[in-house]
Amino acid sequence: MKVQEIKQLTPTIKSFTFISENTELPSFGAGSHITLHLPMGMRQYSLINNPLDMINEYEIAVKKTGHLESGSTYLHEDIYEGDVVKVSPPDNYFPLQMEGKHHVFFAAGIGITPFWSMMSYLRSLGESFELHYAVSGQDACPFYNEMNERYANQVTYYLMDRDSKTKKLKERLRELKVGTHVYICGPQSYMDFIVTYCRELGYPKKYIHEERFKARKLEHPTRFKVTIVNEKKTIQVNSNQSLLEALHDAGITIPSACRQGICGSCEVKVCNGEVLHNDTFLTANEKTDKMLTCVSRGKGHISIAVE
Fold first, then answer.
1. Is the C or the N end of the chain the one with fewer CB within 10 Å?
2. Are residues 271 and 230 in the same domain?
3. 192 φ, ψ to 5°?
4. Which domain holds residue 193?
5. Are 222 and 211 in contact (CB under 8 A)?
6. Bridge partners of residue 33, in order along the sequence
7. CA dist 174 to 75, 187, 206, Å?
8. Residues with Cβ < 8 Å from 111, sequence gap 6 or more?
9. Average pLDDT over the chain, rounded to an integer
10. Rounded Cα distance, 9 and 61, in Å
């Protein structure tokens, strides 16, 4: 796809608009992301345009992380208007739950991106929503002026110190009414805090939705063995590879999509052994005999069955 326009939204955030001059682009739902195929690998970025206003273009906003070989640095420093980038069609593992009576978005930093599309979409439909945005300051907010113009009565900023921010967020979480759906996107520590407190309050899991492009990091992963019972084969999974990768290396192909533990495509049946689950897809009950091979690991020696 061709990079039609690049805008500098903040000192560290740019927006990129991609168009196709020859093909009609697939539509998408609010909360969707696209995958860019960059020299350092595939990178996912949330779409920020309103699905209802899409005119054959995809728009993303990217924060430069500072790492020299990161996808964000490459986009900021090496991509220009007119360049062509390979882009996979949109996927949506973070959709709006339209049965919700009210939608409450909790964002931190660049985690605002999926909600920018969601808020615009909900506003078009006349649905009820609000945003709670933790950001270091006005200069770090990529849509500050537009946000105040469009959603002045629906946005609460959290610009205070950590303790004050935590107290204020907990106060709002305690006020949530039945039928409200909660959506969280931001750094892992922020997301873990919101999710954990929602669960402490007894909020139903089906009403809590997370956007994670990276699985929770497992500390010090170790090697383990896997017997694939219906293949009559045992393989070893090294500490630096996933079970999904080891299966593919062994010639056992199973479906996969996100590779982040959020879509469920690479699910297999666990026949025996202990599993270290690292996904956000399976329920507690499902984890008794299932695992996602892209992010979860075995302990010692486990047995699985693949279809």
1. C
2. yes
3. -60, -40
4. 102-210
5. no
6. 46, 91
7. 40, 22, 17
8. 184, 185, 186, 187, 190, 191, 211
9. 92
10. 8
What's the rounded mean pLDDT across residues 4-28? 95
**Looking at the domain assignment, is residue 143 inside a domain?**
yes
**To 10 degrees, the CA torsion angle through 184, 187, 189, 194?**
-10
Indicate which CATH number applies to the domain containing 166.
Answer: 3.40.50.80
Task: Answer yes or no: is 219 within a domain.
Answer: no
Per-residue pLDDT at 217 exceeds 70: no
Is 96 domain-assigned? no
Specify the DSSP class assigned to residue 252. Answer: -
Interatomic CA distance for residues 129 and 118, integer angstroms = 9
Cβ proximity of 134 and 109 under 8 Å: yes
- Pairing verdict, β 180-185 and 102-108: parallel
* Pair 25, 57: CB distance under 8 Å: yes
- Secondary structure in 3-state letters for 2-70: EEEEEEEEECCEEEEEEECCCCCCCCCCCCCEEEEEECCEEEEEEECCCHHHCCCEEEEEEECCCCCCC
Q: Tell if the pTM clears 0.85, that is, is over it.
A: no
CA distance 129 to 214: 26
Tokens at 82, concatenated: 């007119």
Helix (H, G, I), strand (E, B) or coil at 184: strand
pLDDT value at residue 166? 93
Q: What b-and-e string marks burial along 192-222, b requiring 16 or more CB atoms within 10 Å of the CB? A: ebbbeebeeeebeeebebbbbbebeeeeebe
Rg of the chain, C-alpha, whole Å: 21
Q: How confident is the model over 92-140, as pLDDT tens digits? A: 989 999 999 999 999 999 999 999 999 999 999 999 999 999 998 889 9
Q: In what order do the strands lie in the sheet with 57-63?
A: 2-10, 13-19, 57-63
The strand pairing partners of 274, in sequence order, are 299
Residue 45 tokens, joined: 């970025």
